[in-house]
Design a protein that fits this description.
Radius of gyration: 14 Å
Number of strands: 9
Order of helices and strands: EEEHEHEHEEEEH
Strand content: 25-35%
Shape: globular
Distance between the termini: 27 Å
Strand order of the largest sheet: 5-4-3-8-9
Helix content: 25-40%
Number of helices: 4
């Protein structure tokens, strides 16, 4: 398995997404995009992160960047989350966590002494040539959108 690292080609993906859309690598060929992984729809950190990205969308759109948020949630809670916070970018469902595994973000986590597998809050900025330009691991929800905007300007 190749790891999703800076300079490597972005691993392939195709997932159902909010608004009846499909998020896929093939669809984004030749376009820069941000693929960000978050643990769970409508939780405080994920909401802060998603709303930050939504606020930055006009600026990100000006530089031609497509944004896709990915969680292991089924589509129903994802659609509810998107509607509740008026999130217009795609939120994709990776229920079998195949995409998360391909990007190396399905990891062992621990809470209250219990270990479990879950989604690491991480982001991948992919250039128009399909290569990963930047990787952010263990993203801080508050700072995420500003970091992405800064890096995307350099693409």
């Amino acid at each position: 398995m190749t790891e999703a690292t800076e300079g490597a080609p972005a691993p392939d993906f195709s997932m159902p997404a909010s608004g009846g859309r499909t998020a896929s690598l093939a669809e984004l060929k030749g376009k820069p995009f941000l693929l960000y992984f978050y643990p769970k729809a409508d939780t405080p950190g994920c909401t802060k992160q998603a709303c930050g990205v939504q606020e930055a969308l006009p600026a990100l759109g000006k530089i031609g960047l497509t944004v896709i948020g990915v969680s292991p949630d089924p589509m129903k809670p994802i659609e509810k989350f998107a509607q509740k916070f008026n999130l217009t970018f795609q939120l994709a469902s990776d229920e079998d966590h195949k995409v998360a595994e391909a990007y190396g973000v399905w990891v062992e986590k621990s809470m209250y002494g219990k270990t479990y597998m879950g989604m690491e809050r991480s982001s991948f900025l992919v250039a128009a040539d399909g290569r990963i330009a930047r990787v952010w691991r263990k993203v801080k929800p508050e700072a995420h959108a500003a970091q992405v905007l800064e890096a995307a300007k350099e693409l």
